[in-house]
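Backbone-to-sequence.
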């Protein structure tokens, strides 16, 4: 699914346009964000692509939902 990652005043957030859903990222598997999983406040876990750590935000990427919860 297409996910836009952006920086907000309180941290990082993920926006999924197909679901009209924006949630804060509350945990990251990798310190530099890319190439690992992130946990959203609603419980979704998303696998993000492996990108350079200096990738500029905001950016839209193809992410895979790995959580069973909707």
């Amino acid at each position: 699914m297409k996910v836009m990652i952006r920086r907000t005043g309180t941290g990082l957030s993920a926006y999924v346009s197909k679901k009209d859903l924006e949630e804060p990222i509350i945990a990251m598997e990798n310190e530099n964000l890319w190439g690992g999983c992130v946990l959203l406040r609603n419980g979704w876990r998303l696998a993000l692509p492996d990108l350079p750590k200096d990738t500029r935000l905001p950016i839209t990427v193809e992410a895979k939902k790995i959580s069973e919860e909707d």
